[in-house]
């Protein structure tokens, strides 16, 4: 049986191999789309949704206009807006519907996925590929991760989002004090 430390090492090595395979031009496109958007709405299902909600919080700390789809304060999207969707398996009916609605309203849609041939990325204006196992390929011969189901994709989202925040912070000229000032005082 493996020790916790050996499992930590294996999981972190796997995470490192995954995130270093994300194409830099994909990351640059993610940053550009967010920087150009009047408003960013984010959407993700399940554990991916938890990761993208954390990203929305950091975008808010950067001073961006941002909302989480499903919150009653999410505005209507239009031509100057961005819907940012995580769809690791590429085939999530709710994500596909959100993508189609946003596109019909004229918004850009950037999908982050491990399965770029899926219906959700196919309906988007932009796609960022995170080459990781998801629930679409976590069984049989396809298993590539020691972590269960889509955990390596979800962990990779966290790292990708933190790097995107660092890059956006520099691009937008936002300092630590400004981010801290945007943090809630109701905790």
UniProtKB/TrEMBL annotation:
<dbReference type="InterPro" id="IPR017552">
    <property type="entry name" value="PHI/rmpB"/>
</dbReference>
<dbReference type="GO" id="GO:0016853">
    <property type="term" value="F:isomerase activity"/>
</dbReference>
<dbReference type="GO" id="GO:1901135">
    <property type="term" value="P:carbohydrate derivative metabolic process"/>
</dbReference>
<protein>
    <submittedName>
        <fullName>SIS domain-containing protein</fullName>
    </submittedName>
</protein>
<dbReference type="GO" id="GO:0097367">
    <property type="term" value="F:carbohydrate derivative binding"/>
</dbReference>
<dbReference type="InterPro" id="IPR046348">
    <property type="entry name" value="SIS_dom_sf"/>
</dbReference>
<feature type="domain" description="SIS">
    <location>
        <begin position="30"/>
        <end position="174"/>
    </location>
</feature>
<comment type="similarity">
    <text>Belongs to the SIS family. PHI subfamily.</text>
</comment>
<dbReference type="Pfam" id="PF01380">
    <property type="entry name" value="SIS"/>
</dbReference>
<dbReference type="InterPro" id="IPR001347">
    <property type="entry name" value="SIS_dom"/>
</dbReference>
């Amino acid at each position: 049986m493996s020790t916790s430390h050996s499992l930590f090492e294996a999981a972190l090595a796997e995470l490192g191999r995954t995130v270093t395979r994300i194409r830099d031009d994909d990351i640059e496109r993610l940053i550009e789309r967010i920087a150009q958007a009047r408003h960013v709405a984010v959407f993700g299902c399940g554990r991916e949704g938890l990761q993208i909600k954390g990203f929305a919080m950091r975008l808010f700390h950067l001073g961006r206009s941002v909302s989480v789809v499903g919150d009653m304060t999410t505005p209507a999207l239009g031509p100057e807006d961005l819907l940012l969707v995580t769809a690791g398996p590429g085939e999530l009916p709710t994500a596909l519907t959100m993508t189609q609605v946003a596109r019909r309203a004229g918004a850009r849609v950037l999908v982050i996925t491990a399965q770029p041939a899926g219906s959700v990325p196919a309906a988007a204006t932009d796609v960022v590929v995170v080459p990781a196992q998801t629930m679409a390929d976590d069984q049989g011969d396809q298993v590539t991760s020691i972590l269960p189901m889509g955990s390596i994709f979800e962990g990779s989202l966290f790292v990708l989002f933190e790097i995107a925040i660092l890059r956006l912070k520099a691009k937008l000229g936002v300092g630590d004090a400004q981010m801290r000032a945007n943090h809630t005082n109701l905790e």
